[in-house]
Amino acid sequence: EVQLVESGGGLVQSGGSLRLSCAASIANFALPGMKWIRQAPGKGLEWVSGITSSGKAFYADAVKGRFTTSRDNARQTLYLQMDSLKTEDTAVYYCATEIAGTGGERGQGTQVTVSS
Question: What pLDDT does 32 receive?
Answer without folding.
Answer: 86
